[in-house]
Records
---
Amino acid sequence: MTVGVWSLELDGRVSGMVWTVMFVSLAATVTIHRPAAFLTFVISVIVRCIFSVGIQPTLTMLGVLNVSHSLNSVLLLLLT
């Protein structure tokens, strides 16, 4: 993807490193249940999404998740 003069493409080694971090952090999240492992997994998925689909769709997805989480919290408070 090219934005102006900037190219958002990962080198093969960096892409492999992002995939490795994502799978290792997912395995750590499933096995040891640490917040740091989950946070590492979330950050690696966000980085992967930025370089796969672009910054705008990634930010849109994060915004939709944020709004849906807020609506869910408000509805939970109203219904209890």
Note: Residues 72 and 78 are 10 Å apart (CA to CA).
---
Amino acid sequence: MAVNKLFLVLITILILSISCSYAPKVGPINTKLCIYPSPNPTISEIMEAFEDSYAKATALKINVVTFYYKLKDLADNLDNDECIIKYLAPLAEKYNLELAIEIEAPEPPGVLNDLPTDIQGLNFTSPTLRDRYISLISGFLDAVSKYDTNHSLKYLFFGNEIDTYFDTHPEELDDWNTLLTQLVDLTTSKCPQILAGTVVTYHNALANNHLDWVKNYFGPRCDIIACTFYPEWMPKGYEPGKLDQQFSDIVSSYGGSWKLALIESGISADSFMGSSETKQATYMYEQLNAISNHSSDFEFASPMFAVFAIEWGSPPFSNWVAGVSVYRRDGTPRPIRDIIANNVTTSSTTP
């Protein structure tokens, strides 16, 4: 009986050692990694809310943290001699992180948009809207000069997934492109240390045959183009083994004289689109290797969208959104937490 138990123990150890030896390997990542340090708090909540999130991002070997600045919040903050950069900059410096801020574009109010009252109902063809947006960005850059003395803010983006708006409003593209040029030039003039640009989708642009918009419209006006890429929203969904080629396709479609970044990515752990935490873990190894293989192509890249689960929208989509995160709704880590923390290695050339 004792011999049988010893035999079982030895077999178990052998199986575990074999399984460990065949665990996926991740190559060195020689570019910056980014993540969204959810949730998106108000100014009064920022220090407490982001302290834990920034600390967890650092433990994941993240280099860049993003922030989505709603336009109405920016307008209200500036009216009260406040700005989110006053709080984000010292926190980023404390954790040795760089900042990438997306400022909401003044699209007509939709799901995400809550615009200042004086430009509600206007669109990009309106000089009033364009002038107001330039004024708000100018005020933000003044705040950056005042509060971000150590230059933690490295990247500034105007609009998030802006191509999705022009899918249904192509007649406003020329006005947006003129405005985008002015905004990038304004940033260069006031804060030359910042790379400025806009954010587009890959999965949506592919589905709507608008991949050429980056090279024909947006890219030549920008220092940097950032894209979002969610494999589950590709025409065939997430296809294991295809990520590396899809990364190559992104670079081919969106690369140019400007820098390129992957600002959002990931698959959900939620079952809404047939996923699970196990499937998400398998994806993470593939995602990290795709980033490794394309390190020289990206200024920074996202292994997973958010630190904590984000509550946005309504079920079942809200459950999918909450699942594109490293930590669950109850604050406990998903398996991908250790996969990222234990497998990300860098070389001396990593920024």
Note: The CA atoms of residues 272 and 316 lie 6 Å apart.
---
Amino acid sequence: MSSGCGLGLGLVYLTTANTGKNKFALLPAPDVPEGWARLMLEDDSAFLNQISARGLLSVLVHRLGRHTGRSIKPYLVVCNEHDTVANLPAAEKAARDALLGEIPYVIGDGDERCADNG
């Protein structure tokens, strides 16, 4: 039996971040390739830039950010002043709603160190 669903089909993977090589990605913003290059090693071998379709469906259906008020574990949300992908007010609300939420902010273009404004 192959991995994947019970129908014997293989897993379907989607590209997560636009690295400049992909036509479709879940994070398609124009500044993603630059951010990706700053985070990843040259050969990208340590991290696969993909998510299984099943995993993505789970994230979309459960909308984890809406349930942080029920979390009893620490919840860290790093907010960037110039984020072109995430919704800053929604991220701040998710962290505020969490019992042990913390929000460090990255001010500027990300070269500066985080300053805790929480």
Note: Confidence is low (pLDDT under 50) at residues 111-118.
